[in-house]
Amino acid sequence: AKSLFNINVFLENSASMDGYVKGVTDFETAIYSLLGDFKISGLCDSLNLNYINSKSIPYSKKNALPADIQDFIEKLEPSIFRQRGGDRSVSDLKNILNTILKTVNRKNAAVLISDFVFSPNAKNANAQDYLNNQGVGIKIDFAQKLNVYDLITVVIQLQSNFDGFYYDKKDKPIRMSCKRPYYIWMFGDTKQIREILEKKILDIKGGYQNRLVLQSIKGASAPNIKIQPKATFGTFNRAGIRDGIISGATESKGPRTRGLFGFNVAVDFSSSLQDGNFYADTANYKLSNGNYHLKVESINANNSDASLSGFTHLLKLQTA
């Protein structure tokens, strides 16, 4: 039986977030969809809704019911953001992330919704120093959590219509009416995140632009692979391919492919927490032999080639 866990949602309400909640926006639609999906997922013991900024905010809706979720979304307006209070002039994301990381355990996963605009106050005139300090602090906080906990973080980039003020590095307000990115960060252990991803909860109504799963190298497992028995260019000895060894390789002698050698490797990434697009991007691979080029193809579920059954991607390697 699945063990239920609480999902603690934190919505940043610093001043730069006001533009996402003026009127009815894509932001509000996506957040409503996300909260509704959490509520009906069968995973959630208690859905708890909170506001957060650089100071603690007393507002919190524990064990939100469907009517509470609707009320929470309908009240997403700049005036309510101001009413919830805290320190809206600064986005100390190091402090915000540290506060949230402390809540994450076997019984509690967490979600942070923010534009992730790092906003020093006017006294911190040097924005670059502020960013550097924030970066180092965040790195330390995550490292400390990873030392004691099986932490997985999912980062999702979305886009919404925005009508409000953007604050530049000098804290000068700039009026904007345009599409702006915002981010949903989800924190939990491997079991919690896997169950959430399997339910497609983080696919978000309206879709997302990018998604990245961050996990400790210790927690990553090697995928099942299978070297395909026939070279694409040239030939090789098949005796060792079950052990991942290619021997006796010879280059192609064909008139158009002379001097080339190539082979394919089928890989099963289905147990990974990463999105399928992650594995289709060759920038996410490192080749130990610089003489090879890599292409990646997704293997269709109804592929008729029996040798590719049970695999998700085909890595095509060939010499330059």
Description:
With 320 residues, the chain is an alpha+beta fold. 24% of the residues lie in helices and 30% in strands. It contains seven helices and 13 strands. It is elongated and about 75 Å long. The relative contact order is 0.12. The model has no long low-confidence stretch (mean pLDDT 89).
List keywords for this structure.
320 residues, alpha+beta, 2 domains, 4-stranded antiparallel beta sheet, 7 helices, 13 strands, elongated
Strand content: 25-35%
Physical arrangement of strands within the biggest beta sheet: 3-2-1-4-6-5-7
Radius of gyration: 24 Å
Question: What's the helix count?
Answer: 7
Overall structural class, as computed from helix and strand content, comes to alpha+beta
Q: How widely separated are the two ends? A: 52 Å
| Unreliable parts | none
Which geometry do the CA atoms define? elongated
Strand and helix order:
EHEEHHHEHEEHEEEEEHEE
Helix content: 10-25%
